Amino acid sequence: MAPNLPDSVLSVAVDGPFSRNSISHQSKQGARKNEDAEDDYSEELPQLGELFKFRNGCCSTKLIKKRLPILTWLPNYNRQYLVEDIVAGLTVGLTVIPQGIAYAVVAGLEPQYGLYSAFMGCFVYFVFGSCKDITIGPTAIMSLMVQIHVANLGPPFAMLSAFLAGCIILILGLLNLGFLVQFISMPVTAGFTSAAAITIASGQVKSLLGLPGKSNEFLDSWENVIHNIQQTKLWDSLLGIGTIVVLLLMMQLKNLDGSWKTFGKYISLSRNAIVVIGGTVLAYCLSTDGVAPFQLTGNVTSGLPPVQLPPFSAVVHNQTYSFTDMVSELGTSVIALPLIAILESIAIAKAFSKGKSIDATQEMIALGLCNIVGSFFSSMPVTGSFTRSAVNNSSGVRTPAGGITTGIIVLLALGLLAGTFFYIPKTVLAAVIIAAMFFMVEFHAAAEIWRTKKIDIIPFFVTLITCLLLGLEYGMVIGIGVNMCFVLYQTSRPTIRHYIERVGNVDMLVVVPDQSLVYSSAEYLKARVVKLSQQNPVELVVIDGYAVNYIDSTVAKILAGIIEDLKIQERPVLFWNWQRAVQHTAFRLDAELFVPRFKSGSSLDEIAKCWSLDNRIEA
Description:
Shape: elongated
Main location: membrane
Domain STAS: 507-567
Strand content: 5-15%
Region (Disordered): 19-39
Largest sheet: 5 strands, mixed
Membrane topology: Multi-pass membrane protein
Strand order of the largest sheet: 5-6-7-8-9
Subcellular location: Membrane
Structural class: mainly alpha
Number of strands: 9
């Protein structure tokens, strides 16, 4: 905080009369003590370097436990938690296997890559994660965003994308820059999520109906469906639509009462695994000489993924891509993927926090490490999954140890069950994805937004429509841009109240801005004050700054301009109730002009007493 004003200044700015003699006396003192005044109003340079410095005690036990949450909960682990964690981990494992395969298909990768992405995050989050409910792995939105860039370029680009996303998330976490996601508002997030769900579901309609073609964009998907609708396969369509109906019915089993409640709960939680197993058995039984009545997933590479460095170069279609070429091909997803991953994961942590505070920095560090380590095991980008986290929570998980069971289940599936994945009907996987997307389209959020603040429906629909028509990344940027325009407009148009007050023999125009003032609002403030002064013939204009916590150099310059403009109207200006830090900003611009015009901690009565019609302020 800046030091106190010198007594000579206080005697004028607070107690002294605003007369020519007073100003002259103050000016002489200011001239004699110019150096002291500079010290009084000087501003220290911003300490940006502090962002990159380690604080004292960076290796303290407290910080180590904070950055390795396992050291906090594992010593207090109760053996009674073991069964609950194993049951929850098993349930999540049965959910993630069909989802992982399905999301790999969405990403344009071979099915095994979905499983490669589903286990390492569980192990890393076990050590670094701070929320017991979160499960890290492939998600629908991340898969779709990967698909845009890697569908025609192959797995190396997905692995590099995971590595780069992990590095960026980790760096943002270490630098406490997670606040960046706060620029993505709820209407934009809801529009983005809804558009992603609609796009993903649209891309699966072809597999649901057994149609040929390969497209995952919204418009392309429906163009492909319309163009090939005559090739619809009856058995694929019946199985797919039937699977969706069964999934929706099984969801309702969780609402059973009485002795069937527990049974219905676990059947509902395991519904994805049940329909995939049922579809696989049906396809196997109906196969004749290896030919089934449905389109099948086909060969899935068995065994564990190779442990290797993420690819920093790749050869695709006889063309060699260097690291810079690969990053160029990934384009804006290098930035978009980390932000979306952080947004999803932090939102899930908050949803399941149950009133507890969330360490966003630790969650970002954990998520970044999950992606970095996963990229060494052929993983595509991963983040927290809301569906599986909800399953984890509903299954009664007690600690992050539940993720160990989930990871082991996925590894066992890769090692022992890969051969059976051959018979999974594509239409069943499409049905699993479409059924999940029904609940990602946020109709309720749109209704909430409309009910709460109708203007916010604009960024919602702008984001939704542009994401569908132009792609998720561009839609997100446009949505944020539109939302920021609203914020900037509000910043540039502060509410300015005014009233006329007659105190003693002095008629005053009191102008009251309701927020801090920045460069975008400066000209608006000036125009309003000058116009109000013209409309109200008063002897004194008082600008009440009780709500102003900050001004910048542009505003300080404009305040000086207001004084000059009102001088032409022969109306003096006083600044009343402005905070000391704000005053100092103006003083640094022109102390001689501003010091005698600031009044702090006084009433309008006192200002009126100080004011005399025969002794007005001169600039």
